[in-house]
Specification:
The chain is α+β, with helices and mostly antiparallel strands and 149 residues long. The chain contains five helices and four strands.
Length: 149
């Protein structure tokens, strides 16, 4: 048995210039066509894509969640994020620091070690990620271990 989905919506032939958010709880406004308040312009699309480029990288979300849950040291993060290599963790932490989402503090002891902490910007991103985390719990999509996006 095959399932065919037919749509009368036109297929985009160029770059997407705007996104239309459709809410199942929002009633359609009385005017003709989409509600202008629900259309995102090019700038909003680029801002959305910029955020997704950061958190959409493999392991980045898991690393941020580990730090938000109390992991401060490199080894703690590595133990919490199962399957993550130390080389990739180091790379992702540098990227997060470059984006201003994580701070790295070198503790001057013998031997010295580093501690990582979310910045206020990183905490805002964690808050923004929470609905997606909840969605993941509810829907439990299969894992994509070993696959790069």
């Amino acid at each position: 048995m095959s399932l065919m989905i037919r749509s009368s919506a036109p297929v985009a032939k160029g770059p997407i210039r705007s996104l239309l958010f459709v809410s199942m709880t929002t009633q359609r406004h009385t005017g003709g066509g989409p509600d202008p308040a629900q259309i995102l312009d090019d700038e909003a699309c680029r801002a959305f894509q910029g955020g997704m480029d950061i958190v959409g990288k493999r392991w980045t979300g898991a690393i941020m969640l580990a730090i938000s849950r109390g992991a401060r040291r490199f080894g703690q993060i590595l133990r919490l994020v199962d399957g993550l290599s130390d080389r990739l963790l180091s790379q992702r932490l540098k990227e997060l620091a470059a984006h201003g989402l994580v701070t790295r503090t070198i503790v001057p002891t013998t031997p010295a070690y580093s501690e990582y902490e979310l910045t206020p910007l990183g905490e805002q991103l964690i808050e923004a990620m929470q609905p997606l985390v909840l969605w993941g719990y509810v829907n439990r999509l299969p894992a994509t271990d070993g696959l790069e996006p």
